[in-house]
User: Fold these one by one.
Assistant:
Number 1:
Amino acid sequence: MTDVTQSTTVEEFEASAKAFLDANAPRKESEKKFVWGEGPDKVAVFEEKDRETELADVAKACDWRRKKYDAGFGWVTGPTEYGGAGLTAAHERAYLKLESQYEIPSQGPFTIGLGMVAPTILAHGSEVAKEAYLTKMYRADIVGCQLFSEPGAGSDLASLQTKAVRDGDEWIITGQKVWTTGAQYSDLGEIIARTDADMPKHKGLTGFIVDMHAPGVEVRPLRQMTGGASFNEVFFNEVRVRDDHRLGDVNNGWNVALTTLMNERAAIGAGGGGGGGINMYTRVIEMVRHLGLDTDPLVRNELANLLIHQKVAGYNNQRAMDKIKAGQLPGPEMSIAKLAGTLNSLRLCDFVSKVLGPKLIADSGEWGTYAWSALILGTPGGRIAGGSDEIMRNIVGERVLGLPKDLGIDSKSPFKDLKVGTQKD
Ligand SMILES: Cc1cc2nc3c(=O)[nH]c(=O)nc-3n(C[C@H](O)[C@H](O)[C@H](O)COP(=O)(O)OP(=O)(O)OC[C@H]3O[C@@H](n4cnc5c(N)ncnc54)[C@H](O)[C@@H]3O)c2cc1C
């Protein structure tokens, strides 16, 4: 590994990063232009890929990450004792800004492993786990996934039922997880399991690192309405995990989960435009021109509305980023950012549906019409992942506006107050 830690100033670091990028990746031709009828027509939130293409893309992503790690740019802010470069957040921002100017394989397969799981291992893992996994994760020798949600526990995560029972120096895990993104190509997972059923539900949970290839782990794909299968059900049948793979103290799993979820919202809130590196809004404007609707005052009015909402969300994100730059932790801004992002996607979908009309659902071969259906079918997923719109509204209501606390849903008896068939009127 090149020793970039010798570069003390951000300027020196930038110079070595630029030399690495120039030698290893082509530069993007200035700002990518969107030309109607040319180039990629992908506007999907979840790209539909067959397994072979998906695995080939993951391999390309890993190759790039390995190269970058070996050159010293794979974990810029990470502690040197676990394989990081030990530099500052300013160094990392400088690298990411530079990297965005080059054509590199999509780094999507690492969103969960590096965006959420690795920071949790760093914060709560044993020395054995940190030494065994952090370098390997940042070098893409292994990929990680998040095993939280269950059929009966999503928004109300603390209701989860997968259990871990201690057996000497090991734990035996049994249960089922669901919606596990990327489990099909992951080597390691962060799991939260119930270790004490007699304690209050938030208290009897513990986090673990589990080997996704261990005996008793079964991954089954879930087909989405977009056609792809990005998520999975994961079954655990008496899977053994060593105690040094525990995250944090026994029965302190809720705090471990919160570390991961805070990182998840930050990652989703900061999400990009998608679709072959071209901003969705640029595509929408071009679509309106192509359909000859750019002089229609009603269409123009709605388009202006869309762009204003996008700008406002951008300013809120900027506020959160500035807080991070100033060394503060982002607070409920991340929930506002997540909510604003998904509501803007919904507005975009409504607009596209109205403007395209039946062209949206008829695969006529006309470029860039039917292709939008992938965006419309994928957008609802974003409104649920990482905390649904309703949950984000609860957080904003309680922590920003100071409204009374949400009473929550009793997952064991969600409709207990509904007296169906007994009302007289
Ligand atoms: C794209 C995507 C990727 C995902 N990836 C992962 C992953 O990698 N790992 C993982 O563990 N999970 C993952 N999930 C699961 C995700 O975290 C859950 O779907 C989410 O937390 C919602 O839980 P649920 O699906 O059980 O819905 P529920 O919690 O059952 O909610 C159903 C409906 O009730 C509403 N609701 C629930 N509680 C309240 C309340 N208190 N007040 C108001 N309304 C409420 C919700 O907003 C929703 O509309 C993913 C989900 C999606 C869509």
Note: The chain is about 40% helix and 10% strand.
Number 2:
Amino acid sequence: MSPKKHSSILDFYDIEAPYVTEFRRLLHNMYDGRSNGELKTVMLTSAMLSEGKSTICSFLAITAALKKGMKTLIIDSDLRRPTINKIFQLKPKAGLKEILVEGYNPRDAISTTSVDKLDVLTAGGYCENPSEVFDADAMGTLFDELKFYYDLILIDAAPLLPVSDPMLLASKVDGTLLVVKAGATQKEVVRRAVEILNPRQNSVIGVAFNNMNHSLPYYYDYGYYQYEYKDNRKKSAKSISRPDKMQPRKIK
Ligand SMILES: Nc1ncnc2c1ncn2[C@@H]1O[C@H](COP(=O)(O)OP(=O)(O)O)[C@@H](O)[C@H]1O
Ligand SMILES: [Mg+2]
């Protein structure tokens, strides 16, 4: 039986699975030996799209909340291709766009999840002009405000090479985690991404390798495999068949 389409990631997260140990390890490594200031806001970005940023961001956030008891918030800052709402199967509601454009109260835009201590701020409604709406300074102010309520804020960002958003956000967060799709992203491409981040304040705190084929269950198919980084939300998602035998598993 193929996995149920449009399931929430929470249906797949298996607290006993080996990948959860990897996410615990990643969290541990993020804080281990860290003496230079607090680490509350962490941006996840990558060189290109579809390297697994949103997936890793979500699994990392669930692990932080469930296994470490950290009050955790995910912010979807990718106004062009938001996915956190789909990953958590959240009903449409105001999000980052409405905060930036309409001055919406952040506390009203945040959604709770069925995981205790895990909240989500989606990108919000359809954004026609993401580059005009994206305001790194306003987002920096928002992060500072929300830090008061959370132990960890993970920012799911756009990729570095196609757009400048994550580069601009890098100086507004405490650290940046670079996601690399192992065996797929070329060395030169990763190098260029690091170059883009390096001159920023508080640049890369680590690299998370994502092995797309073997490490995590396929839980959702966004039809994300495209060559250009552009808004495709008006198009119907192209479905890709996957030879997947995994079944949804409830959090135990
Ligand atoms: N380790 C993995 N194993 C299986 N599928 C994965 C893995 N990481 C990501 N995917 C799938 O790849 C696609 C792109 O991942 P996503 O996290 O949305 O990438 P990004 O946010 O970098 O664009 C999604 O359909 C996701 O379910
Ligand atoms: Mg993404």
Note: Residues 53-54, 78, 83, 156 surround magnesium ion (ligand 2) (CB under 6 Å).
